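Suppose you are handed only these lines of text.
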Amino acid sequence: MRTKIVAGNWKMNKTASEAASLIEGIKKEVAGITNVEVIVCPPFTDLKDAAAACAGSNVKLGAQNIHWEANGAYTGEISASMLKDLGVTHVIIGHSERRQYFGETDETVNKRTKAALDAGLVPLVCVGETLQERDGGQMEAVVIRQTKAGLAGLDISKVVIAYEPVWAIGTGRTATPEQAQEVHALIRRTLAEIAGKAVADTVRIQYGGSMKPDNAKELMSQPDIDGGLIGGAALKADTFAAIVKAGV
Ligand code: PEP
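From them, the structure of the protein bound to phosphoenolpyruvate can be written out as follows.
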């Protein structure tokens, strides 16, 4: 039995004070929910205030990226210990926007995931095909490659995967529950190849891409969909909480 996990990817939105008030709103809405893990992932600059707002609640704190080195001359980067020091427990890795705009590769995803695991942070590792790749019949190959290369050599039992078809992110175009389930099952088969079926059956696989209150329940009732990674709808307490409640 896998506990559902719903995480909000705030991207480059919200100042620190806005973050604190959004978390206050989310906390009220999701208080008492114990069978869905709830995570907010604000920008780095919000993390300290966000941690204070999350304290003592069932809302956990995630970051949107992590560097693989422990410290040193890496201008603009943030290490695992810096995140842990602020109370961060989860971190998004390999989001398609980072792959598309910031040169993220399967190799750097692998290094970041290793750094997160070594530090005891839970990595939310994003995989997903572009529309061109799907239309070109490459969806399976891309998702298998990203999963295997991103997780190569790592203990996958502590990893969460987020399947995010790039064509569904921020477009309002959601994968149908059947389309998403097909890929989630493919990812689980790939995880079983890596670490065996028993481990693969325990790994949570979130769906992301225009998940909203009105489609969340159907998506999350698919056998291999264990939650959501939410972009736009995570920026308002009521819509984010409605998605969390759809997973209860
Ligand atoms: C995301 O960017 O992780 C995402 C799923 O965005 P949206 O929900 O806005 O499609």
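What can we learn from it? The chain has a mean pLDDT of 98. The beta strands are 4-9, 36-41, 59-63, 90-93, 122-127, 160-163, 205-208, 227-230.
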